[in-house]
Amino acid sequence: MRFKAELLNAEEMRRALYRIAHEIVEANKGVEGLALVGIHTRGIPLARRLARFIGEFEGKEVPVGLLDITLYRDDLSEIGHRPQVRETRIPFDLTGKAIVLVDDVLYTGRTVRAALDALMDLGRPRRIYLAVLVDRGHRELPIRADFVGKNVPTARSEVVKVKVAEVDGEDRVELWEKEAP
Amino acid sequence: MRHLLDFQGWTKQEVESLLDTAKVMREVLERPIKKVPALQGFAVATVFFEPSTRTRTSFELAARRMSADVVSFAAQTSSLQKGESYKDTLLTLEAMGVDAYVIRADAAGVPHQAARWVKGVVINGGDGQRAHPTQALLDAYTLLEALGSLEGRKIAIVGDILHSRVARSNAELLPLLGAEVFCAGPPSLLPQSLPGARLTPNLEEALEGADAVMVLRLQRERMEGGLIHLEDYIARYQVTEKRLARAKPTAPLLHPGPMNRDVELAGTLADSSRSLITQQVQNGVAVRMAVLYHLLVGRER
Fold first, then answer.
1. Residue B162 carries which DSSP code?
2. Which of A79, A83, A121 sits opposite B31 (nearest CB)?
3. Gap from B297 CA to chain A (nearest CA, Å)
4. At A105, which helix (H) or strand (E)?
5. Closest CA to A127 of A90, A92, A96
6. How many other C-beta atoms are found inside a 10 Å radius of the C-beta of residue A104?
7. For residue A95, which residues of chain B lie inside 8 Å, CB to CB?
């Protein structure tokens, strides 16, 4: 793959998440009944950061859950490799809550569809919002994000890489070009 | 891994990966809706040439919890009674679109042979005295839950070692995870050798300092065959509170079931807080979900 551009640096990422945190509180009219659920892998540290920002300016702790969508993927019976299944841990009752589902990149929408199915099996939230750091387009399902850090029109031949300090040692969003076969 | 027949050729990493998946499946079984769509579109057949309740139910529940379609085949009510061969029975099921076969047989090697006949995945649900790999996996999972790690742990297996596929599979699997396996039983019920385990007719030696104790069922046919006398066995090999005192004070007790209360194991111990027998049964479903996931997802169809 060939590096093309930096889409967000660490400070821009921080500002985008800070803004999303404010938008979440505004949309929910506070933090009453609010909880965040991060999708493995990078959605989890992003959800934790959003919860920390919300906690800082609202003075209340917002619970965070971890969600793995592997068992809900719609291509499991067709793929040529076995994806690793990871932990799902929702340490609160989803029923009646306003849940913000958090992921790093929104692309085809299939991950979000799987996450919605998984959440519905775990409880009955009052409503579900979707927050993503980058929306790169190319939806295959009628799904949109409620909170977006940055909209980036991309080609299908491009790859958006989100790096977070907790997993990758640095905060940065990059655009790469797949090599022609 | 293409089939699960025994643990020959398995690495520690493969075992740990499967047991990690079982941990996730355990969480699925604690949810209000204990079902995920991972195996939607797959068909799993339980093909039991020998009667079984818990293994069959555990596999069927595991497959259903993963949204697979399940076909249940029992030899007693099948075309085998009309003279059909094992091979033709399996090929008939394959023609109907079965993807995985859980095979239980009283003869050793039937699942291995089946794996040569069918294109689908074969899982050994227990064959003769040879192997019962999913029982060993659920035992290992339960031991890991209780002990944290099996590295350097002494695991005592007590009972009819000679005829036990559970002991054989555990002796193959537990050393892969770093455990030392000691098997104790009457001399008439001990094999000449058992790879992966130390054998002793001395129960006390096996129990001394053990981190966990696994008790095996004493089968009635062994008594009828004259290999042992029940009173002798109870007097010398029943795991009692007094004998268990030689093991570590917190050493958990396991039993693959079904259990002969007050024969191989004192009933009070079976009901005590050290007994993990119920957890073994619960973990069995999660482990079998993990096995089905590892074997079916991502394979060429």
1. T
2. A121
3. 6
4. strand A98-106
5. A96
6. 23
7. none
